[in-house]
Amino acid sequence: MTVHSQLQPYVEAWTHSVESILELVSPLPESDWSRATELPGWSVRDIISHIIGFETEAYGDPRPIHSLPRDLYHVKDDFSRYAEVHVDVRRCHTSPEQVAELDYTIIRRARQMRNESRPPETKVRWLMGEQASLETVMLTRAFEVWVHEQDLRRALGRPGNLGSPGALIARDVILPRLPQVAIDLGLRPYTAVVFDVHGELEFMRTVRVSGEGEVSIDGSVSLGPAVTLTLDWETFLRLTTGRVRGRVPDRVKIEGDEELADRLLTSLSVTP
């Protein structure tokens, strides 16, 4: 049996990203596994552990029984504590052990996805004891492994795949969440904010607040926006996934209300 056509793009994007990650880290010397990433408290090794952990959960494996140290400053809430268990339990693993477990996990998950015959709306086990639709789980995994591939590439100085299938999914996940940023900031009625993104993916989107306070996003041109942010796709990704906050030197051009631009750039993260 093959996966439902609605799920196939997520499987293809996930496969491309996770195999790229395996190819990226397999030849790394041990010293590179300790390189810091833009995720607080996490090294290259830790991101690989995180990917392995969440993929094994998606496969159906039980979570490890493990008590976290009390001095992990980056563990601040229930979700980060949940995610950290998979990471901390593997901190003593060598790089060959990490590569072998990642490879084995990819093989099992790829086989599971290829044999998937359930409809997209089927409820399955998900994180923190919750349930979600099969489509939501596959979409989330495709999105997350590509974002983490980019985390790894930046940490290792090996850019690439910014226009891959995973990038397209990431764009389509992030853009619908931007109106919530305007809602959270309490933007006034009749305010429009333009995001002009260039690079491997190019698009322009306008977040609008109507006279009744309703917030929407579309691709039409806005006359006289309150602020226009012009930036490259990678910087847009880093801002919207919380890897950086505020003005990124030499990467963001601001036109219009500078104070509003600063508020936006500080609050642009739309992921946990």
UniProtKB/TrEMBL annotation:
MF-aspect GO terms: isomerase activity; metal ion binding
UniProt-listed InterPro entries: DinB/YfiT-like, Maleyloyr_isom, MDMPI_C-term_domain, MDMPI_metal-binding, SCP2_sterol-bd_dom_sf
Domain Mycothiol-dependent maleylpyruvate isomerase metal-binding: 16-153
Pfam annotation, one family: MDMPI_C
Assigned keywords, A-Z: Isomerase
Membrane-spanning intervals of the chain: none
Sequence ranges assigned to domain MDMPI C-terminal in this UniProt record: 188-263
NCBIfam families assigned to the protein according to its UniProt record, in alphabetical order: maleylpyruvate isomerase family mycothiol-dependent enzyme
Protein name from the UniProt record: Maleylpyruvate isomerase family mycothiol-dependent enzyme
Biological source species: Streptantibioticus silvisoli
Lineage of source species: Bacteria, Bacillati, Actinomycetota, Actinomycetes, Kitasatosporales
